[in-house]
Design goal:
This protein has 254 residues and is mainly α. It is 75% helix and 0% strand.
């Protein structure tokens, strides 16, 4: 084909048909440009197809990751609610001196309320990888991309709240690190000693006097407030954000 066009050029030049040669040369240039544009167009289509496939792969991975994170958060909300409901029950006992629990009931309520530390640990390996590699730009939905970018800062805010909640929890537990109260009694009364093959102590020290302690009441109240705030001001908005992100991902998935 190239030789064919070259032959025509030579023929026009040899016949001194310079005007026709210019027209022919311009036409040849136009054909070359059109060919280049067609090639670029085909290449762009292929590249866009590759990028779209890559985006779909990321979206499916993010959907799995955020669904797992959502389930973890729902379970954590349930544990946190159990904690502050137990704390509320303890405060009822401190308010009503005529209603006193048994040592066993009191021990079980203490363990129910303060045994479990609250720490949200979402699944974010894929999102972290996308952020670190700059692949977040491959997400075409602007709103989704912004929300994914802000996700990390939301988790940092949650972590700070959980640290404060953990501090209030430790304030309650530290009251047992004195001569006046006994962790061993908690173990004996709730049968947790059997897990460690410990025999029940014969002369158990009662912890019921905690119910008359203003310091204990204050610590439990602060723990209750922090637990409730963690749910209403942090976990519930985070759950709403999770649902929004999952909804946006679902719309983009094909």
């Amino acid at each position: 084909m190239i030789q064919f066009f070259r032959k025509i050029r030579h023929q026009l030049l040899s016949e001194n048909k310079f005007g026709k040669y210019l027209i022919y040369a311009l036409g040849e240039i136009v054909l070359v440009v059109i060919g280049i544009l067609i090639a670029l167009g085909i290449n762009n289509i292929q590249q866009n197809k590759i990028l779209k496939q890559k985006e779909q792969l990321y979206l499916k991975g993010l959907q799995t990751e955020f669904e797992t994170s959502r389930l973890k958060l729902i379970n954590l909300i349930a544990v946190n609610e159990q904690n502050y409901q137990g704390a509320a029950r303890l405060l009822e006992y401190t308010a009503d001196t005529n209603e006193s629990p048994t040592e066993k009931d009191f021990s079980e309520l203490l363990l129910q309320s303060f045994s479990f530390d609250i720490n949200y640990n979402p699944s974010s390996s894929l999102l972290d990888e996308m952020i670190n590699s700059g692949s977040l730009k491959d997400i075409s939905n602007d709103e989704l991309r912004v929300r994914l970018t802000n996700w990390t800062s939301m988790l940092q805010d949650i972590s700070k709240q959980e640290e404060e909640l953990g501090t209030q929890r430790r304030h309650v537990l530290n009251m047992f690190l004195t001569e006046n109260y006994s962790i061993r009694t908690l173990f004996d009364q709730t049968n947790n000693n059997s897990e460690f093959r410990l025999s029940k102590k014969q002369n158990q020290r009662s912890n019921l006097n905690l119910l008359t302690s203003t310091k204990f009441e204050n610590n439990v109240l602060l723990f209750l407030l922090e637990s409730h705030s963690t749910e209403t001001s942090h976990y519930n908005p985070l759950l709403k954000e999770l649902d929004t992100i999952l909804g946006l991902i679902g719309k983009e998935l094909k």
